[in-house]
Structure formats: C-alpha cells, structure tokens
Amino acid sequence: MKTLITIATLMAMTLIVQFVNAQEGFDNDKIEKLKAQKEILITAEKEALKKEVESINEKLDNNEITIEEAQKLKEEAARIHALNIENGLAILDNRIALLERNGTESLGTDTNKVTIGLGAEDPDDGDILFGIDIRRGGEKEIKYDRRTTSNLVVAFGLNNAIVDGQSLDDSDYKIWGSRFFEIGWVWRTRVFKNSNFLRLKYGISYTSNGLKPTDNRYFVDNGDQTDLEEFPLNLDKSKFRMDNIVVPLHFEFGPSRVRETEKSIRYYTTRKFRMGLGGYVGANVSTRQKLKFKENGNRIKDKIKRDYNTSDLIYGLSTYIGFGDMSLYAKYDLSPIFRNAEIEQNNVSLGLRFDL
Fold first, then answer.
1. DSSP for 34-68, written as a single string
2. How do residues 257-278 score in pLDDT, each as one tens digit?
3. Beta strand ranges found along 235-272 (DSSP E)
4. Residue 274 forms beta bridges with which residues?
5. Does the reported pTM lie above 0.70?
6. For residues 155 and 181, is the Cβ–Cβ distance under 8 A?
C-alpha cells in the first residue's frame, strides 16, 4: 500500500509538471506556476499520508497488526512522505533558481544541452530519459502536428440501480451510501485535420460499482436467482460490489486554444468547455459482498466473493459535460446487474470526472 501511494504521488507530481510545461509561454509565467506547484505538492503528500494512516488504522482495528507494528508503520510512512516533500520542493526551487538566473532551465550550449526537471518537458523538444532532456550534437526533429494525446482519468460519485417498475425514491439501495469509482488511461485523437472541435476519446478503465441495501438486508444466491433477504441479526454494514474492466469510447466536443509556430501546431483544451457522448464495453472481473455485524458480543466481518449471478459482459452509455479538467459524469449499464433476474436491474452512476 505504501509503495503504491508513493508511486501514484510521484506520477501525479510528474503529470503536474508536464501540464505546467505544456502551457508555459513566458519565463515569468513559468516561475509563478512552479511556485504554485509547491502547495500542490505538499497537499498531495499530506493527503497520501492521511490515506496510508487510515489504511494502517483499519488493519489495527481488524487485529491484523499490533499497536507497536502500527506505530512503526506510521512513523515510516511519515518519514517517506516528508522526504518526498523535501526532495520535490528542492527540485522545484532549483528549477525556479535556474529560470531567475538564466531565463531558461537548459544548461550548456546548443549542441550539448541538458534540461533539468521533475518529469519530461515537451516530448517534441528532445530525447527524454528519467526526467532529463539530453541532447548530443543536435536536436530531434519536432513533429509538426501531434493529433493524439493521452491522460489519466479519475471519476467517483453516487451509484444505484434502476429497477423495472420502481423509482429511485423507492430504491432498494441507500442513495448516499452507494458509490462508484473509476480510474483509467485514455487517448484523445483529433478527428478533423484542421479543427479540434471534435475529438475521439478512447482507453481502458477499472470501475467499481457499490450498492448498499436498505432495511437490514443482504444478497442471497438462490440457485439461478439472487435475492435481497432480511439478515437474521442487526447489520452494521451491508455492501455489494462489482469490479469491472471496461473500454470507454466517447466523441468529445468543445472549443480549444491553438498555438502555432514555424515548427509546430498544438491544440489545448485547458479552461475550455467540453462535452462527451459515448459508451463502454467490458467484463465483470469480481463480485463480492461485505457484511459487518455483532454476534454474542463479538464483532464479525464477512467478505464473501462469488458469482451472485451477475452479468459477465458489461456495456452501457455514458456522458460528461464540464469546464477544463473537471466534468459532471453519468453512466448507465444497458447490461442487467443479475442474469435471469425476475425483475431486471441496471446500474446507474452520477458523479465527477477529472481528466488529469
């Protein structure tokens, strides 16, 4: 867990710097944006540390580790994230110092140039190796028109089910307790040669759709049927989760800003309106149910992983509309949640989407 969070944080740091470098036009703008990254870096590391401590506390509550082990893990996590902040700030400070002193981050001559940074600068500017742009004896030819770009997508929000003959007001699932999460990588390709108004957006995502039944109920596998039934004891928690791998495809509309030089032409959608219409198709990779309750004074937590007659093939419609990197996001599974169900149920989600 600790390693994954650290890697994710470093990836986020790299993406932040790439974003800044893509938008830089003047040295003063570079310096101001680099200074702003300090607060973003500190906030990101603190949030990562918070999540890691929460994970350690959960293990402690579940008696998976002792108090002493938990304390050591917390101290180690705090040390690592403190070093991440220290190293990241040092890199940003050095970049700012180079810009203030030389007006550029490049060192050396035109034929022997090294550019220092947290991550890759503009990929068209030269050869990139572990965040260092190294040029020897000349420059790499710039691709004049780059029509395809890529980015990380993260989405989360409320989840529920559309039940045949039933409104959401009478849903069998808690409105605020049922949630979804999505993370993936997408590519965006400009459809027309001389216009960026229409883009094709496609990729691969992991999605997790959760449902929390109402009225102290849980799911029971009764042969080829899966039913909601009353639990014999008082449930502290009842959660049903479906994990999927899907391939999303959207047509994205919206204006963009054009930056054209003698060597290149680039289109940017930063701080611009955007709307996407499309859908997704994929497969269910895991279905599980989590129950928490007390029996004879003992706290019991059951994690049950089985088929539950859920659909193997997942497909549906999705749309998003927003400004800049953030959008309002909605998706609806055309495939039913349960196969052969007497009453068909379809998963529906509404939340926020971030194209980072």
1. HHHHHHHHHHHHHHHHHHHHHHHHHHHHTTSS-HH
2. 888 776 777 777 788 899 999 9
3. 235-253, 257-260, 265-268
4. 322
5. no
6. yes
